[in-house]
Amino acid sequence: MNRTIDLTTLRLKSGGHTAESGDLCIMEATARHLGLPHADRKVDDVCPRIEAYCRGLNDWLLGGVFTEAQEDEFSRRLVTFIPRLPYTKGTPKQDTQRRWMIQETATANFAASAMRAVGLIERADRLSACRITDVADHVHWAAEAAEAVEAAEAAWAAGAAWAAEAAWAARAARAARAAGAAGAAWAAGAAWAARAAEAAQAARAAEAARAAWAAGAKKTHLANAALDLLDRLIHITEKEG
Question: pTM of the entire structure?
Answer without folding.
Answer: 0.81
